[in-house]
């Protein structure tokens, strides 16, 4: 047990060193999130917009700036976590594979990657929640944090999964951006007249968007939006873990005696 | 250990890529305390064979038996640019389950790069990166060391130190298998094999590649 704890602690430290060396992502988190969220709030049309909270079967009317800010927050958090997880997973793949071949327990590496994903998602979600609460009153800040963290987790899992099949930073960034843009544009009543359609229920950020709007404009939790969000988060994270495990799988560790016989 | 005391026993190993056979039935025995070499032209399948021997690649058929701990130094330096030399050593210490870094420090001293422990690979020369690559493969004192073109980027002094290290390993009963496309170190080897047509053949240690 002590050995596994040492491996896990080492892997967590290693994963955070990797993330902290990604200076571009840190600059985007510290500077770009507030700039983007304040600008999108301040420069939106000053008109009320109806938003159908399908999970509560209720339409709420909100200022366009607030609605755009929530969508913008989900988008920037999705891009940051998706790209951070993609870059670190892709760049460290050969090294992780060598570590596993040398006897480093693969489950410890996977657990460390998950830990980093959850911590990154929570930190950026709390940061964005604080910024949103500064610009306008929010009925349920905890629900808002959970919604933003859920969206970040979903795209973090997508980032890890994409790292198993793509080999360039640019390809990863483009794909995460395209998926996330389509996802959120289809849910925006400003961009898409069909935002209230049934199909939006199957989009990755449907649950987080519904919960985020409810957190600002309602005093109840839209529980039926939680299920899809949890399913998407579990599915993308599971896909990411499977892809990572497949990519770092080895025939046998080089650290110990091996007998390998193949017919 | 296998009953015949070989540290490596390979029988009829075959490997194809998309129907194109690269290894057609490789046999090899390596006793303890031997330094052996495998040469062959570019594309002969040397790296494929070494990856199969290291357990990094599953063969289509045949068997590979290791008689102890092995170390594998791949042709490409597999390092992580986010980590310092010290952090690399620490991670592999955990991977190998080592109590201390004493052996790694001895190796770094022998290869003369003890002063770079806080540096990251991106700031190191190609030769120094290769030294770290080698230390990571050797720091658990394996019974068998598998090396793929191990001295790329080494200057002459480091090249000589590398062979001193190989001598020291042989003297302590460790075995070393070196894969190279050149045979100019043949005189330093106990046995030399040529990979040709997907099979290993004994080669003349006095001849060039």
UniProtKB/TrEMBL annotation, chain A:
Annotated transmembrane regions: 24-44, 64-87, 108-130, 142-166, 173-203, 223-245
Domain of life: Bacteria
Keywords for this protein: Membrane, Transmembrane, Transmembrane helix
Name this polypeptide is given: ABC transporter permease
Organism: Microbispora hainanensis
TrEMBL record, chain B:
InterPro entries: AAA+_ATPase, ABC_transporter-like_ATP-bd, P-loop_NTPase
Alphabetical list of SUPFAM superfamilies matching this protein: P-loop containing nucleoside triphosphate hydrolases
MF terms in GO: ATP binding; ATP hydrolysis activity
Domain ABC transporter per the UniProt entry, residue ranges: 8-209
Tagged with keyword Isomerase: no
Alphabetically ordered keywords of this record: ATP-binding, Nucleotide-binding
Cross-referenced Gene3D superfamilies: P-loop containing nucleotide triphosphate hydrolases
Keyword Nucleotide-binding: yes
Name by which UniProt lists this protein: ABC transporter ATP-binding protein
Organism: Microbispora hainanensis
